[in-house]
Amino acid sequence: MPIIVTLDVMLARRKMRSRELAERVGITEANLSLLKSGKVRGVRFDTLSRICEALQCQPGDLLTWVPGPESGEPGGDDDAT
């Protein structure tokens, strides 16, 4: 997947544990773990907003786009007919 979740990096920078963030945001630790690992297909803007508020960061601090085969670039799987 071309979107990389860097939530663990921001947690380390803020010296905050996943448990504390989950409590502040109002989601389960299990869901936060799935988000951190990039195993989710999406995140609600409301949840992303609460995470950014708790960590005092921007969405771009948590998500990075990396070109790859799924990004729609020539030669990727999206070009199959």
UniProtKB/TrEMBL annotation:
CDD domains: HTH_XRE (cd00093). Residues 13-62 form the HTH cro/C1-type domain. InterPro entries: Cro/C1-type_HTH (IPR001387), Lambda_DNA-bd_dom_sf (IPR010982). GO terms for molecular function: DNA binding. Pfam families: HTH_26. It comes from the Bacteria. This is Cro/Cl family transcriptional regulator.
